[in-house]
Amino acid sequence: MTFSYEHLFEFTKNILLKIGCSEKDAALAADVLLSADLRGVDSHGVARLSGYVRLWEKGRINAQPKIRVVHETPSTAVVDGDGGLGLVVAPYAMQVAIDKAKNAGTGWVAVKNSNHYGIAGYHAMMALEHEMIGLSLTNASPLVSPTFSKERLLGTNPISVAIPAKEQPPFVADMATTTAANGKLEILQRKNLDAPIGWVQDKEGHPTTDSNGVKKGGALLPLGGDREHGSHKGYALGAIVDIFSAVLSGANYGPWVPPFVAFLDPDPNPVGDGIGHFFGAMRVDAFRPADEFKTHMDNWITRFRKATPTPGNEKVIIPGDPERELEAERRNNGIPLLDPVVEDLSQLGERFGIKM
Amino acid sequence: MTFSYEHLFEFTKNILLKIGCSEKDAALAADVLLSADLRGVDSHGVARLSGYVRLWEKGRINAQPKIRVVHETPSTAVVDGDGGLGLVVAPYAMQVAIDKAKNAGTGWVAVKNSNHYGIAGYHAMMALEHEMIGLSLTNASPLVSPTFSKERLLGTNPISVAIPAKEQPPFVADMATTTAANGKLEILQRKNLDAPIGWVQDKEGHPTTDSNGVKKGGALLPLGGDREHGSHKGYALGAIVDIFSAVLSGANYGPWVPPFVAFLDPDPNPVGDGIGHFFGAMRVDAFRPADEFKTHMDNWITRFRKATPTPGNEKVIIPGDPERELEAERRNNGIPLLDPVVEDLSQLGERFGIKM
């Protein structure tokens, strides 16, 4: 079934009001959450709404957080999210980074005591309208094994970087540091299809094509898939995201990151507070005149766009192009939701007296 | 043949003095260059010395550069390398980043008009003794095709991040954003061995196992290898390194980056000056007390080190461990050089009246 953006926005906002969010926070969180659906990252969108509500029911999400800066220098800050929705904590922290950048040239903000923040790209893209480059990192529940390990010690720990251009649309990379994001696996699971080798290992640590391998105690693999194809690099990238997000901020890291699912309890001996994020904002004109920079970005993008394609492929893709095109399409024609998601949201709506 | 570090250091320094470097610059450049040999990145070490000299002969390296800051804010700077050796320009720029961080919490320096800077990790590691996290990026001669392209538009564009710990040695990642670095291919070429699928594509853009594929007009592949295994992520990472290093600084980017080899001329219509780098330094205590941070880094490292290994593997490796162990070994027992490298250096020495 397909729903208009406006309909899903109102629904999401109303649910969040019911759990006690302020009007402003509910609207912001709905906007962040639905940007995932608009941009085609369906696993991180409204499908997760009932998951957030279950965490709130368990007392693991604070609907009325007092988010605040607890440490700062001219170009840095640490934000304590007070257990709030990451969907609200993250834009707050990114705004602090942007404000720092206005004065110091750049701003870098590590966040503790937060929760899942939706898609990384939303927050990085906040920098664009200020003629800044945006960076957004977060750690997440451990589903990924480092190279040579059977244990799940890292999340899919995404990296997003958004870079403004002039006439061209911005460059927006937003990627898990694994070969494939968990959402890609879920698509295969629903279709009963195998996964390519390099995406998953089984419980014993052997490569597997079983798309249910992670559910059976296996793990997602770092970008590269195996050592021969550079998985130690994907592992290092995921580790850097974990350390910047959580060791710098004072959040939980590695295997201590609290699980997103409410039926699994967090580690009884945490090493920090909640999950962690890391944001950066760099004023383009802290390096060279903004117009000059953006003109060269246009040239960069145009040159890559017109690169000769390999046989069977149409063109080189600039990071952010597919998501932007899908967003335009879905804003016009609506957001398709899978039947189980519609069912889940309908039940959620019934509980709170809100019609889906 | 094996040579002591001291011998190779004196040799390298004396060659650099002969081309006109100052005593200080020659010693610094020799130190940077040989750190690659010590750490096992043999392709980036003394084997490249005659390549630097040939670029100098062509007038493409300035042995007496006036390196200077041309633009700055409290947390940023742009450095013009004046065509100097990257081996000298890069440590200068990283020091500017460190000095900025002392005052502003962090420092971020983009560099133009530079040349090949040795291993990325050397410069990132400069931050460690200041209780800072170091970041080092550089673009490089185009040898890599973006996903879906036949053209070489990116260099192997490495990312290095160095993070201090307390009792544990530091975390030091230093990686090309390709599946495999060019040096790995060279090893296979010398042994007449095939490369795994995912490292190289041929001139037509098809995957190939030919380890000479790049020399025959093909290209290195971004980390991931192909679209199904996430090569669009490796491509995006390489692109980010290119943009930070060169579009921010005013250097050449993408296919315009001047080739390292002196027998290929740079593009007659450059889009900037020389090649570009990007450095960052973040004071750990700009986020939380340094001792607290370092204690948690020890905990992070220890936990990952003792993760249960997969069958047939001994342990999980912390980024930087193998290089540090090799460095200790080679400082004691000497640096092995291949016969063609020894021959090349001997000839270089003869020309300048310096005994190899």
Biggest sheet: strand arrangement of chain A:
2-3-4-11-5-6-7
Total count of domains of chain A:
2
Termini gap of chain A: 12 Å
**What does the average pLDDT of chain A come to?**
97
Q: Helical segment tally of chain A?
A: 10
Measured on Cα atoms, how large is the radius of gyration of chain A? 20 Å
Helix content of chain A: 25-40%
Structural class of chain A: alpha+beta
Main sheet: strands, sense, barrel of chain A: 7 strands, mixed
| Assembly category | homodimer
Overall CATH architecture of the largest domain in chain A: 2-Layer Sandwich
Q: Examine the coordinates and then state which fold CATH places here, giving the name of the CATH topology of the largest domain in chain A.
A: Ribosomal Protein S8, Chain: A, domain 1
Q: What CATH first level of the largest domain in chain A would be assigned?
A: Alpha Beta
* Global morphology of chain A: globular
Task: Please name the fourth-level CATH homologous superfamily of the largest domain in chain A.
Answer: Malate/L-lactate/L-sulpholactate dehydrogenase, NADPH binding domain
Listing every helix as H and every strand as E from the N terminus to the C terminus, the arrangement of chain A reads EHHHEEHEHEEEHEEEHEHHEH
Q: Strand percentage of chain A, roughly?
A: 15-25%
Q: Show the largest interface.
A: A-B, 87 and 86 residues
**Which spans of chain A of ≥5 residues are poorly predicted at pLDDT below 50?**
none
Please provide the count of β strands of chain A: 12
